[in-house]
Write a structure and sequence with these properties.
Layout lengths: L4 H9 L6 H12 L5 H14 L3 H12 L5 E2 L8 E5 L8 H9 L5 E5 L9 H5 L11 H11 L1 E5 L6 H12 L6 H13 L1 E2 L2 E8 L8 H17 L3 E8 L7 E2 L1 H12 L5 H17 L6 H14 L1 H12 L18 E6 L4 E6 L1 H11 L15 E4 L6 E2 L4 E7 L5 H11 E4 L9 E6 L2 E4 H6 L2
Helix pairs in contact: 1-3, 2-4, 4-9, 5-12, 5-14, 9-10, 12-13, 15-16
The chain binds uracil (URA).
Uracil (URA) binds next to helix 9.
Length: about 450
């Protein structure tokens, strides 16, 4: 059926509902280059301002998913569960939780992305491991999944091509932070993989795409509802992204922190997110039905060293040097390591994740444009986190940089991100809510059942 693009733009601009056929016309027309960027930008802005209802969001997701290939895992035994994070700073949880749940028999296929803006990227972090191949053919992807229990690869050209085109346009038209557009972008890619379930880590706070809790809950509820409608067991966990997750920010530095976590030395916030997401993955797979038992099992697996063994196997299967697990000197390193010290006594009241993410880009650990290169050994290691007591001259952060000239500017950026208060501050809660098809539960409510 043919429509007038002008009329569809006007309809959405005026807050009217658009039909499935109209959405199909816009998306397929844009993918085939029949609709120009300027008209698609107008539609995106109209959606950004007027929103989409549940039916429109669900139709948009399905049509985007159908723009490319579908990967079936029918030939691979076991429950396949996808884990997705909406993106943050210092988020290395995939490297810990995926081998951990794989050690319990869950199969974890992940298609991941690169760092962009203030957020880090799973593929860049993995590429700091010498030899690691993060672009696998579909056949090799399935083979590694079956043999190892987990696999991570970059998105292929043929999976949801509509999202690749649309995301680039959203990025340049200030239309990324929009709940229905984020939902359709993420869920179309999740549904293009033939998994049994999806666990979503929806970040909220200063370093997240969506900063306030109310909108983060709405985003999560919308994604859970779309996943369930597509017959995937879908669970969302809302986690705090006000401060960076863990102590390390930067590619090789985060790989080291992940391996240390698999050896039982993970920071509290990293392990809290690992166990909340891991337990949700076990529940989505139907292996456990309550958080307390699932977390107990995961802790046993971590302590037995089986999860670390799977991480080694995963590195080897994707061509990487697994000796990095025993010798961190085999990973890229920065030329200089410089300390930033506290100017006063007090408590750390804020470490702004967005500002830290942008400082990480400046130090070479991230990128602003897709084409920018990354310096894998650079980044920050925090000696203090929100809520910690600090004395004057105590080290706040270790700066890992290759460029002596930028040290003063980095220090300035870090100083503007870190606040020290004379009042005692409590450590912030890391896990906030769990959302499934039945409703929204606070983490305190769930923990009360432990
Ligand atoms: N991640 C995605 O894949 N898409 C969005 O729109 C936002 C985060």
């Amino acid at each position: 059926m043919s429509f007038s693009i002008y009329e569809i733009i006007s309809k959405k601009r005026d807050g009217k509902e658009i039909s499935k056929a109209e959405i199909e016309f816009i998306i397929n027309g844009y993918v085939r280059d029949e609709i120009p960027d300027y008209q698609m930008s107008a539609i995106l802005m109209a959606i950004y301002i007027q929103g989409l209802n549940e039916r429109e969001s669900s139709d948009l997701t399905e049509i985007m998913m159908d723009s490319g290939d579908y990967i079936s895992f029918n030939e691979i035994k076991g429950k396949k569960i996808d884990k997705h994070s909406t993106g943050g700073v210092g988020d290395k949880i995939s490297f810990i939780v995926c081998p951990l749940v794989a050690s319990c028999g869950v199969k974890v296929p992940m298609l991941s992305g690169r760092a962009l803006g203030h957020t880090g990227g799973t593929l860049d972090k993995l590429e700091s491991i010498p030899g690691m191949n993060v672009f696998l053919s579909i056949n090799r992807f399935k083979q590694v999944l079956g043999d190892v229990g987990m696999v991570v690869s970059g998105q292929t050209e043929n999976i949801v091509p509509a999202d690749r085109k649309l995301y680039a346009l959203r990025d340049s038209t200030a239309t990324v932070g929009c709940i229905p557009l984020i939902t359709s972008s993420i869920m179309s890619k999740k549904l293009a993989l033939g998994t049994d379930g999806i666990v979503l880590d929806v970040k909220t706070g200063k370093g997240a795409f969506i900063q306030n809790k109310k909108d983060s809950i709405l985003l999560c509820e919308t994604m859970v509802s779309i996943g369930e409608k597509a017959n995937r067991k879908t669970i969302g966990v809302i986690t705090n992204m006000n401060q960076p997750l863990g102590k390390s920010v930067g590619n090789a530095l985060e790989i080291i922190e992940s391996i240390e976590s698999l050896k039982g030395n993970g920071p509290d916030d990293v392990m809290d997110v690992t166990y909340a997401l891991g337990a949700s993955m076990m529940i989505a797979a139907g292996i456990e039905n309550d958080y307390s038992k699932a977390i107990k099992r995961l802790k046993q697996r971590l302590n037995s060293g089986e999860a670390l063994e799977i991480f080694r196997n995963f590195i080897k299967a994707q061509g990487g040097n697994d000796k990095i697990c025993d010798n961190y000197d085999l990973l890229p390193k920065s030329k200089y390591k410089v300390e930033l010290r506290s100017g006063k006594d007090g408590y750390v009241s804020e470490i702004d994740a967005f500002k830290i993410g942008m400082a990480a880009v400046y130090v070479g650990a991230g990128r602003i444009k897709k084409e920018d290169s990354i310096e894998h050994g650079t980044g920050f290691v925090f000696n203090k986190k929100e809520g910690d007591n600090v004395r004057k001259d105590e080290i706040l952060v270790y700066i890992h940089t290759n460029n002596k000239q930028n040290i003063e500017e980095i220090k300035k950026r870090l100083e503007s991100a870190i606040k020290i208060s004379s009042n005692k501050i409590l450590s912030p809660q890391t896990i906030l809510y769990v959302i499934d098809k039945k409703g929204v539960y606070s983490w305190d409510q769930i923990k009360a059942g432990f």
